[in-house]
Amino acid sequence: MKELALAGNPNSGKTSLFNILTGSSQHVGNWPGVTVEKKSGLFRKNKDIIIQDLPGIYSLSPYTSEEVISRNYLLSGNADGILDVVDATNLERNLYLSLQLIETGILVVLALNMSDVVVVEKQGKWIDTTKLSYQLGVPVVATSALKKTGIDQVMRQALREIERTDETIYPIYDSHFEAALSEIIRILGNAVPQKQARFYAIKLFERDKELSEQLVLSDFQKTEIEDAIRITEEIYTEDAETIVVNARYEFIESAVKMALQADVNQLSLSDKIDRIVTNRYLALPIFAVVMWLVYFLSIQTIGTMGTDWTNDILFGEWIPNGVKSLLEQLAVADWLQSLIIDRIIAGCGAVLGFVPQIFVLFICLGILEDIGYMSRIAFVMDRIFRRFGLSGKSFIPMLISTGCGVPGVMASRTIENERDRRITIMTTTFMPCSAKLPIISLIAGAFFPSNIWIAPSAYFVGMGAIVLSGIALKKTAILNCPQKVRQKILVKGFSSVLHRTKSF
């Protein structure tokens, strides 16, 4: 029996292709020790081929449980080949995973899914699979899981690759980076399988703690590897992880530029918008305007109208008056009436009063997320925020927290990485919001009436606490615990807004 791993980004058409290839001969279970769904099946046209559907991932770095599962499976040696499903409409992003799959040393066939859509979305452009195959060093076959075209061709190519015995052709990066990788491979020697040596070298260069702990290396080997990394960092004046990311994307940019057949001066509408919203000088002003609109709609106008109605009418008149009439008819004691109306109902009203604001906030954030703006501003802010242990997506919750901390903390749910989300929640609470500022002013006026700098200092102390706590949490091991594993449930559109509001 041969085993073929089906890998790819989420929403790349991987599951659709898996269903076509296996038909009804599927087995659904869980990966060992976790609750992440495990799907495998026999190829309909050859029952000697097991197709293993890996979780949808963006990379082989151990940031999520799905990425850890996929990486451990590929390094276990069980897979005889990889069928990499690539969304042709998001080629650059998908190829980032493809390069890492090739680096594992396992034979890869690239299924260029939705390639027919590219011609429409890219205004007449098309992808030359021959040139892309030449650049990547792996077979590339154009497919469409929706139209069920190219499926037989890609599987024939995959079955041929499984039987191959020659060595994998790896992507070649910048000379200084390649020199560092060669040195690390030399230092590793026989500590890792030869065909996986390049993958381990890159991960060690990135200072991947989880992978380095799995290897049995002497202190001398570890020192030599660290020296090679440090020297390379000095050459590039960048940290190791950034060097790897830049090297991969430079390679991808070159490969796509050669494979995408079109007038280089012709930009799609999406490209034109990207050039504006990610522009070095325009990105932050545009973002400020967008977030002001989100804040204005959710906190100041529509959301506040709902909150005022909830507090003043629903929990201010209707419910208390109705409950009071009922309690009086039942001859309930005055103290119990006061407890129910003034404490329980009023307390619930104080919390539920935020629901309209949260609801409108998630509608706005959901729209920004669906049109792709959130990922673009996160890209712009990520380099700055990473210095303080935060994600680029942390900026939005913090900005919202200047108005109110509750919707700010709730907005952190849009951050996919659990560790980044936890750090954001912990640091966002230090943000001086509109409820804290009157308290700061009151204390400053009462105890330090002659010192005008106390109140502003308290504000900036809160900002400083965010920076310091972010750096401290980045260094600590408290948040490095394995991410809780749960099955991914795809919730789109309005149902996502309802779900998040219900969670609040």
Would you state the CATH class of the largest domain? Alpha Beta
The CATH homologous superfamily of the largest domain is called P-loop containing nucleotide triphosphate hydrolases
Looking across the biggest beta sheet, what order are the strands in? 2-3-4-1-5-6-8
CATH fold-level label of the largest domain? Rossmann fold
Strand count, sense and barrel status of the largest sheet are: 7 strands, mixed
Instruction: Name the structural class.
Output: alpha/beta
Total strands: 9
Describe what you observe in this structure.
The protein is globular. The protein starts with a strand and ends with a helix. It contains 23 helices and nine strands. The protein folds into four domains: 2-162, 3-Layer(aba) Sandwich (Rossmann fold); 175-265, Helix Hairpins; 301-353, no CATH class; 357-503, no CATH class. 60% of the residues lie in helices and 10% in strands. The model is unreliable at 477-492 (pLDDT under 50). The chain is an alpha/beta fold and 504 residues long. The strands form two sheets. Strands 2-3-4-1-5-6-8 form a seven-stranded mixed sheet, sandwiched between helices. The relative contact order is 0.07. A hairpin with a 6-residue loop joins strand 2 and strand 3 (37-43). It has helices spanning 14-22, 65-75, 91-103, 115-121, 129-136, 151-162, 175-188, 197-205, 209-214, 219-236, 240-259, 269-277, 283-300, 302-329, 334-352, 355-370, 373-386, 395-401, 405-411, 418-428, 436-447, 454-475, 493-503; strands at residues 2-8, 26-30, 37-43, 46-53, 81-87, 108-113, 126-127, 140-143, 260-261.
